UniProtKB/TrEMBL annotation:
Source species: Nepenthes gracilis
InterPro entries named among the record's database cross-references: ASHR2-like (IPR044238), SET_dom (IPR001214), SET_dom_sf (IPR046341)
Name this protein carries in UniProt: SET domain-containing protein
Record PANTHER family: HISTONE-LYSINE N-METHYLTRANSFERASE ASHR2 (PTHR47420:SF3)
Stretches with biased composition (Acidic residues): 361-381
A Pfam family of this chain: SET
Region entry Disordered, spans: 359-381
Top-rank taxon, per record: Eukaryota
Residue ranges constituting the SET domain according to the UniProt record: 51-325
Length: 451
């Protein structure tokens, strides 16, 4: 097994870009990928957690995560820090009103909300002295600021983001999405300079099919010329088109959105994107057996870590899957999102059943039929009894997953979250379920009363 090892610093970066250019799509690269599955500097806890899971080839799906022993409901099976994290906000300056409102005050390093009860406290917040738009670059504490200077907000990042903000073709003419992609590329090239090993890890992730629609090609060309125009450190040449394309594909396939807290009155938006190398091995299933939790504003340490917990018990050897979006989406929307964002169609057990529904029921007006389907699902999660559910859905032969919705869907209006038990204590399993979106805690007794 071969590892690509390079020294830190400028020299390393030049070499890295050159070497990557030559091997990115070669046979050797494929072998290389296996060698860099896990970051060398993995924390102890991360390594310990991986004893529960094995990366394996899954028929028809590529690589996936398999339980290497039986796993218990609520058990934490993975906890990991991101190798890369970047803001989900476009680069153009927000309107003055929005900029001064609370919703834009995040730490630019750890993305904690700086106002409100969980905020880092306004008095210790530090503003980057070099950024032209201080609202965009504020740190929750002197500690976060000094960490950022050596990692996420190096002088090069600071300079590059300033440069991009003053680039009219980007901030005035391009879609918000393009501006966020530019942020990602700055973060990724910065990673190559500050942590070549983490950059390798990023490159080792699955990028799926190359992005090749007309729109993708135009975006890659535009972004590559934009990044090439940045003031690159002396001696560093501009990144190749291939490298930019590969990075964008990996980001699209693997980035997890760190979401704003749930609020009943507005749609939940993404605050930051993060890449977790091990978590990115989880495949999708429309009825997942594990789900992710994050505690961006509440965790004391490692608030950007991802935590994956088991929803229910599974035996050894079973594949562990997450749902890449809320479980209550209808069949067509799920298939569309998987195709658009990840390039595959889902063949999970639930989809096999629901594919027949849509053939039968919504040939004429799929949109309308889907809405009804969603309503039914929301209705169930709001606590209809099982008998009623079966009548509505034509018996459980047609709906083997009714149990999932009754047991593991949050019943708060518009939440769409999934419930997993709190981690089991030494004395046995937990009987309190936690919603991974709104954080609502629900006891087993409460669940029994409802069903
Ligand atoms: Zn911070
Ligand atoms: Zn700055
Ligand atoms: Zn599916
Ligand atoms: Zn919820």
């Amino acid at each position: 097994m071969k590892f690509l090892r390079l020294k830190h610093g400028k020299e390393g970066f030049i070499k890295l870009v050159e070497v990557l250019f030559s091997i990115l799509f070669s046979e050797e690269y494929i072998q290389c990928k296996v060698g860099v599955l896990f970051p060398m500097e993995a924390e102890e806890s991360r390594v310990a957690m991986l004893t529960l899971l094995t990366v394996a080839d899954i028929e028809g799906k590529g690589r996936g995560m398999v339980a290497s022993q039986s796993l218990q409901a609520g058990q934490i099976i993975l906890q990991e820090s991101p190798v890369l994290i970047y803001s989900a906000f476009p680069l153009k300056q927000p309107p003055l009103q929005a900029a001064t409102s609370s919703s834009f005050q995040y730490c630019a390093h750890c993305f904690r909300n700086l106002v409100g009860e969980n905020g880092g406290g306004g008095s210790v917040a530090v503003t980057c002295p070099s950024c032209s738009h201080p609202h965009d670059t504020i740190f929750c504490s002197p500690k976060c600021h000094s960490l950022a200077l050596a990692s996420t907000h190096t002088p090069w990042v600071c300079q590059s983001l300033n440069h991009l903000r003053n680039c009219p073709s980007l901030v005035a003419d391009q879609a918000d999405e393009r501006q966020v992609q530019a942020r990602f590329l700055v973060a990724a090239y910065n990673l190559a300079m500050v942590s070549p090993s983490n950059f390798q890890t990023l490159l080792s992730l699955d990028g799926g099919m190359p992005l090749n629609s007309e729109e993708d090609t135009a975006a890659i060309l535009y972004l590559n010329s934009l990044i090439s125009g940045l003031p690159l450190p002396e001696g560093i040449s501009a990144p190749s088109l291939q490298l930019t394309a590969a990075l964008l594909a990996k980001d699209k396939r693997n980035a997890f959105g760190l979401m704003e807290p749930f609020s009943q009155n507005r749609e939940r938006s993404v605050r930051a994107y993060a890449i977790y190398p091990n978590a990115s091995f989880f495949n999708h299933d429309c009825l997942p057996n594990a789900c992710r939790f994050d505690y961006l504003d509440t965790a004391i340490d490692g608030n950007t870590d991802i935590t994956v917990r088991m929803i229910h018990n599974v035996p050894q050897g079973r594949e562990i899957c997450l749902s890449y979006f809320p479980v209550n989406l209808g069949y067509s929307e799920r298939q569309q999102r998987l195709l658009d964002d990840y390039g595959f169609g889902c063949l999970c057990d639930r989809c096999k059943v629901e594919a027949n529904w849509s053939n039968k029921d919504d040939d004429d007006d799929e949109g309308e039929a889907m809405e009804e389907e969603d309503d039914e699902e929301m209705g169930m999660s709001a606590g209809l009894d099982e008998e009623e559910t079966e009548i509505e859905l034509g018996g459980d032969d047609n709906f083997p997953h009714a149990y999932f919705f009754l047991s593991y869907m949050c019943d708060r209006n518009d939440c769409g979250g999934t419930l997993a038990p709190l981690p089991p204590s030494c004395s046995g399993g937990s009987n309190v379920m936690e919603c991974n979106v709104c954080g609502h805690l629900k006891s087993e007794e409460e669940m029994k009363c409802e069903s």
